[in-house]
Specification:
191 residues, alpha/beta, Uracil-DNA Glycosylase, subunit E, 6-stranded mixed β-sheet, 8 helices, 44% helix, globular, binds iron/sulfur cluster
Amino acid sequence: MAEQIPLQDLQASAQSCRRCPLWEGRTNLVFGVGDANARVLVVGEAPGADEDAQGEPFVGRSGQLLTQMLGVAGLSRDQVYIANILKCRPPGNRNPLPEEIEACTPWLREQTRSIDPEYIVTVGNFATQFILKTDMGVTKLRGRIHQAGRFKVYPVFHPAYALRNRNSVLPQLEQDFRLLGELLSQDSVTG
Ligand code: SF4
């Protein structure tokens, strides 16, 4: 297995990253937050305005919903590690560009290697497609385990999408996190 770099060393190195032009617009680089030895790594898309201002992922309205959904799975924010595909905010919250994903994801790879989680919960299309190396959308992949190397990958809808579609998507998001909680407790018993 490749060498594991301590998370705090990775974070210190990332602070000065200029691998893509997004560094120019950032207030804060948003590296990630949580338990460095977490069983569950949550991977989202990119920082928004609140995250850029505070330097922490998922702290705005989407983040509040994610925290609530983690609770449905029996998890607190402190028990997981939360990161994004991109560490700096795209202007106007536009979608990540392929060249930005290519430039930034070595950080995520090193984070994943360092944390060595059992589960990776991919939040939304960008994280799901990157981690599973697929063009399929999260709608088709959500709510079940996909194996990627030694990781169990569990895609869910992005909370921002659920907030825009409260009647149709939010119940599915809640259902998926409930099932995640069941899977985690089953693995604890049998693993
Ligand atoms: S988005 Fe990623 S690759 Fe681009 S400057 Fe920020 S940390 Fe570096």
